[in-house]
Structure formats: structure tokens, C-alpha cells
Amino acid sequence: MTPWVKRTEFTAYMVTVLSVAAAAQPSGAARSAMFVLDNDLIAVRGAGRPPDYDYTQGSTMALSWAGAPQRVRQFAGGLPGCATAGARRVACVASGLAIRQQIYTPRRDAATPVPGERPYAGWLSASAVAHRVAPGRIRSLEAEVGVSGPPSLAERVQDGVHRLLRNEAQLGWAHQLRTAPGLVVRYGDTRRTEWEVARSATVAATARLGAALGTVVTGLSAGSDVTLGLRAGDGALPWNPAEPEIERPPRLYVRAGYRQEIVLRDVFVEGRGSSGRAALRTLVGQFEGALGYRRHRVAFEYRHVVRGRAYDAQPVAHAYGSFALVVHSF
Description:
Blueprint: H1 3-23, E1 31-39, E2 54-65, H2 70-75, H3 85-88, E3 92-105, E4 121-134, E5 137-148, H4 154-164, E6 180-198, E7 201-214, E8 217-230, E9 252-266, H5 267-270, E10 283-295, E11 298-307, E12 318-328
Antiparallel strand pairs: 1-2, 1-12, 2-3, 3-4, 4-5, 5-6, 6-7, 7-8, 8-9, 9-10, 10-11, 11-12
């Protein structure tokens, strides 16, 4: 079986998994579709050559429901879905599915691996998440399965973008992280408090705790963010299951936040076995600022993210930008 056939079969398998899981969702539930594009080219920056290394490219396609399959609701204690405001005022369950691709490259591009640098790496995955929604608190459990190496299609995507932009191809993809399946289980606990500061303005403070355990990444995180939101006079926008912690989404908002991570494993930095090169840093901080707008069923957000040094040879933090488009209740 050729490598191309293997890659095609794996991609088709993940799409099938998501399709079957989507069919199991309750009919008539509120839904959201989301597309996210991350790239260091679109980070806010000054003059000079744009970066093209570390976490250099990522994309996510996700579907969210204000309900969940019956087995998930039974596991959560028989709670109902979150389609009604009454259910969200007590406790309910929402869910989502996603396909992701992430691309990582070293800072020094070379035909042979550079000691101390992170490896060329790609990750293609599918995930399912369940949210237990209650007033002021969201608890989430996510399972993600994926593959690294050539089946992740990272080399093909990056080389294709470089050809489109008429940039030179990266030299070291022949030494990328080898093909291997991976599994990550994530838990998140979000607590949100909101205050009305004017007739059409609110301030929200959110605290977040997280944990990840898996074959590709393992670690803990804690952080917080503050959001200033402006609403229309009636504030009558529907609830968005893609962002279950927000009961009444604002039309225009700005957000700033910080997260501290304890990183115990990251194969996209360390590599695997003999491919390991970079010395992993255990404490990694991350700052982000965001500006978003929502009108009726469509929401748009831009984030500027600055992630601290992830390995010893990394001289400074790395910044990237992120665009998110959400279409509600399609």
C-alpha cells in the first residue's frame, strides 16, 4: 500500500467518524459551525521578514450542538441538552466534534537536523468534546485521536502555501517527526462571572483550569481572562453552543488573558526517540488579546497570541495570529 493511499484512508476514516457521530446528535438542537485559522504570518508585528517557524500554521473545522447523544447524557447523570435557557439555568450537556491540523517547524531551516532545535512536525486529528453547562461554570471532557508524520499532510500543506506565496520550500521535511498514532484526553474547568457596567456593556472575568494526558502532549494549565462586551439595546442574540460559557453573547467585545502551563510532554518539541533534539521547558506562559464581533448568526474574532519559550534553544517568545469564523444555528 502506497503512503498516499494510507494518508487518504486515514483522512477518510476521520471524516467518517465525525459523520457518524454527527448523525447521532439529537435532531432540532441548536448548532454552530466554526472555522479557525492560525498562522504566524498574521500576527501583529512591526517591519521585517515575517516568522515561519515554531507553531507556524494550524486550522480547525468544528461542529457544536446544544445537546449530546443519549449515552453521553446518561454518563453525565441524565442531564438534558442545552437547547433551552431553562436547562442552562440549572445544568445541561452540550457537545462538539472537530478536525484539526497543526504544523511545527524549527527556527533554523536546514537540510539536516540542527542540534537543539525542535523537529519538523505535523499533527492531523479528530476529536469529540462534551460540556457540562451550569450557571457560571463549564466542565469539559475531550478525547482527541490523530497521527503525526507524513500522514498529517503538514509538508504538503506548507509547501503548497509556499508555492502560492512564491516562497521557498522548507529544506528539512525529510527529517520530520515519524509516523505514529496519538491519543490525548483533556479536561477543562471554566468559571465565569459577569457584571453589567452600563445599560449595554458588561465585564466578564473567567478563570480556567486544564489538564491533558496523552501520547503526544501531557501537562497542566491555569489562566484567566477579562472580557469587555458591548450589546445592542435588546441584547437578543441566541445562545451559541460553540462558546457554552457565554449565555448572552455580546455583539462587539475585546478580551485579554494569560495562561501558565506546566508541560510534562510535548513530542512536537522533544521529538520521539532518536528524533528528539530540543530540550523541553517545563513552565510556558501564554498571553492573548482578542477582538470580536457578532451579528445575528455570524461571529468573527481575531486573536493575537504570544507563547513563551517552549525549549531551551528558543531565543524569545513566538507570536501568531488567529482568525475564527462561527456560523450559528445553520
